[in-house]
Automatic annotation (TrEMBL):
It is found in: Golgi apparatus membrane. This is Hexosyltransferase. Pathway: Glycan metabolism; pectin biosynthesis. GO terms for molecular function: polygalacturonate 4-alpha-galacturonosyltransferase activity. The chain crosses the membrane at residues 37-61. It comes from Gossypium schwendimanii. It is a single-pass type II membrane protein. Its EC number is 2.4.1.-. Coiled coil: none annotated. Belongs to the glycosyltransferase 8 family. It is an enzyme of class 2 (transferase).
Length: 567
């Protein structure tokens, strides 16, 4: 008997030794076969081999090629082969095996009786089994078995083979479960480490901020007014192009401002409003006071310097920052209570990103208060601190928003499933009754990071009140209405107030997509490192970092002395 597996793995053929006939031929579909599928196939074939060998023995003994039968999966069904093919068994087993005349009917009944008897009896303890099926066939040729001994031997060999197959399958399943569990735990550990790395402050950047803060207290020039008194009227002049940046990252702020200036065709018309928190204000002010950017006007203000930002005006955000469940959600144990066995690594990564501590920072919610913070301005471009500007943005002020408030790129019209295939269903929990009642899961989402806001039109809406309402509802619902930071409540608040702009203005995904088209990066007006792999972190992507680092002044004493991004 021969077992032949084709080189392409598309067929398995079992044939007799004398080549008369193919006893079994298994064809496999023309597709890739996993190792698990291949192993299961081999185990099934191995289980069928005992029955195939019996048929082979019959062919070998008689040399006939006209009779064939099909092996079954149990010894009980094997016994029925006698009844299914009486002519074959009668002619082949009669004279030589049972020592009787060719009485096929009686032979069949006797053989069937023997098989039934063997099924119900215990296998003799001293029964010596052949070492292989070849030996069984050889001994059968030499008439070393009577019918009952042969039946016992066959039953014992089948049972032994079955036990081995079951044992191997259990061992294989146990091994695969262990390997899958270890792989999943390793992946989760990696994702947790990346989450902590993304949420931490690199030593160099921390040094950078501390040194600049110290400079503010010891250097009068670092405390000089920004901008100078004669330029203060420009801060509310709508003939200029006003950019707003809200951040506590001094180095990132310097890159954003520098990239805008270098890309601008008319930098004299650029005004930057940099907003930061109280702890970073001194360092941020020192940097722009000591390193003035040619041709543009920069204003640095702390949240504490805005009279409008009081507890009365932002009660919801005050509650968010102080609420125990909120703080535990963003700062607590991210694995506790998570069913990792039913969570894919990609889903877990998404949940970790949604639980970044930055989402409960007032700086991250600040854009919803732009009309109140800048009451004299009509239109501004709001930039995140993880963007780089590569093209002149002045045409944004010429876009007709058609009465809408927010000019943004839509993120549902593209082939990239990570970035440009986002709908409301990707952000909201539509099993929540309030969400299901008020939102459409197939509505297109849009992006934060680079937005042109018409503040004049905004003041005529109730966007801020809507934003506060949904934050309160999510708080009441124990944070179950959405899963990702500040964008979901904004998607609701700006519903009906968004004007889509050309996608070439804003390219997303440089903070979590390693495989990205570099030519597309070069062509984009604004590139956005949204995601965990920020360019100022060690986990940033090396091939994408140069687009950001080329705007870092490495000759500056503060940058050099703090060894920022040194390899």
């Amino acid at each position: 008997m021969q077992l032949h597996i084709s080189p392409s793995m598309r067929s398995i053929t079992i044939s007799s030794n004398n080549g008369f006939t193919d006893l079994m031929k298994i064809k496999v579909a023309a597709r890739h076969i996993s190792y698990r599928t291949l192993l299961h196939t081999i185990l099934i074939v191995a289980f069928l081999l005992p029955f195939v060998f019996i048929l082979t023995a019959l062919v070998t003994l008689e040399g006939a090629n006209k009779c064939s039968s099909f092996g079954t999966l149990s010894f009980n069904l094997l016994s029925h082969l006698v009844l299914l093919c009486p002519d074959c068994f009668g002619r082949r087993f009669g004279p030589r095996f049972l020592g009787r005349v060719d009485d096929s009917g009686k032979l069949v009944r006797d053989f069937y009786k023997i098989f039934n008897q063997v099924i119900t009896e215990e296998i003799p303890d001293g029964l010596k089994l052949p070492d292989s099926f070849s030996q069984l066939v050889a001994e059968l040729k030499n008439n070393q078995y009577d019918a009952k001994t042969f039946a016992f031997s066959l039953r014992a060999m089948v049972l032994s083979c079955y036990i081995k197959i079951v044992t191997l399958n259990l061992l294989y399943s146990s091994l695969m479960e262990k390997l899958e569990r270890e792989i999943r735990e390793s992946k989760v550990s990696e994702l947790m480490n990346r989450h902590f790395a993304a949420s931490s402050i690199p030593k160099g950047i921390h040094c950078f901020s501390l040194r600049l803060t110290d400079e503010y207290s010891s250097n009068a020039y670092a405390r000089r007014q920004l901008p100078s008194p004669e330029l203060l009227p420009v801060l509310s002049n709508n003939s200029y192009h006003h950019f707003v940046l809200s951040t506590d990252n001094i180095l990132a702020a310097s890159v954003v401002v520098t990239s805008v200036v270098r890309s601008s065709l008319d930098p004299e018309k650029v005004v930057f409003h940099v907003i930061t928190d109280k702890k970073t204000y001194a360092g941020m002010h020192s940097w722009f006071a000591l390193n003035p950017v040619a041709s543009i006007i920069v204003e640095v203000k702390g949240i504490h310097q805005f009279d409008w930002l009081t507890r009365e005006n932002v009660p919801v955000l005050e509650a968010i920052e102080r609420h125990h469940d909120f703080r535990n959600y963003y700062h607590g144990n991210h694995i506790a209570g998570a069913n990792l066995s039913n969570t894919t690594p990609r889903s877990f990564a998404s949940k970790l990103q949604a639980r970044s501590p930055k989402y409960i920072s007032l700086l991250n919610h600040l854009r919803i208060y732009l009309p109140e913070l800048f009451p004299d301005l009509d239109k501004v471009v709001f930039l995140d601190d993880d963007v780089v500007i590569q093209r002149d943005l002045s045409p944004l002020w010429e876009i007709d928003l058609q009465g809408k408030v927010n000019g943004a790129i839509e993120t549902c019209k593209g082939e990239d499933e990570w970035v440009m295939s986002k709908y409301f269903k990707n952000y909201f929990n539509f099993s929540h009754p309030l969400i299901a009642k008020h939102l459409d899961p197939d509505e297109c989402a849009w992006a934060y990071g680079m937005n042109i806001f018409d503040l004049h039109a905004w003041r005529k809406t109730n966007i801020r009140e809507t934003y506060h309402f949904w934050l309160k509802e999510n708080l009441k619902s124990n944070l179950t209405m959405w899963k990702l930071g500040t964008l979901p409540p904004a998607l609701i608040a700006f519903k009906g107030h968004v004007h889509p702009i050309d996608p070439s203005w804003h390219m997303l995904g440089l903070g979590y997509q390693r495989k990205i088209n570099i030519e597309n990066v070069k062509r984009a007006a604004v590139i956005h490192y949204n995601g965990q792999s920020k360019p100022w972190l060690e986990i940033g992507f090396d091939h994408l970092r140069p687009f950001w680092t080329k705007y870092v002044n490495y000759s500056n004493d503060f940058v050099r002395n703090c060894h920022i991004l040194e390899s």
